[in-house]
Design brief:
5 strands, five-stranded mixed β-sheet
């Protein structure tokens, strides 16, 4: 059962305020990702503590610090937008479902992936540094 939207909205806004496009349906995911060749950030957002404490702040820092950034930035919300999340995970081939997670897609393939186990227990700054490096390499 999805979470109460009153609790989720501020978590969504942490990314949308940064210019990250929220995808709430499977159709929106396909429209955004199916034919995209440019580097695209795909964030599987989550209600969990490591998303709040590490992932979302790390993404924000990376976007502020990076010289190069993905041409397109998207997000789905795990546990809330179920169809969109399931469809988004079909674009993250070779990795098990993980939330939160951060993928950088290029030419329709995963160029870089940060899974939950690479987010938990790390600082937002360390996550940002990894993302900046990935942006520099793939964008």
């Amino acid at each position: 059962m999805p979470y109460d939207e009153r609790f989720i909205t501020p978590m969504r806004q942490e990314l949308t305020r940064l210019g990250v496009e929220e995808l709430r349906t499977a159709g929106e995911v396909d429209q955004a990702l199916a034919e995209e060749k440019e580097p695209t950030l795909l964030v599987v957002n989550s209600m969990c503590g490591c998303a709040a404490r590490n992932a979302r702040p790390g993404i924000a820092m990376a976007l502020q610090q990076a010289g190069k950034k993905p041409a397109k930035m998207t997000t789905v919300f795990a546990g809330q937008d179920l169809e969109a999340t399931a469809r988004a995970r079909q674009y993250i081939t070779g990795y098990p479902p993980s939330s939160p997670s951060i993928a950088l897609l290029k030419d329709g393939d995963v160029a870089y992936m940060m899974e939950r186990h690479q987010i938990e227990g790390r600082t937002a700054d360390a996550i940002a540094q990894d993302l900046v490096h990935a942006f520099e390499q793939y964008c």
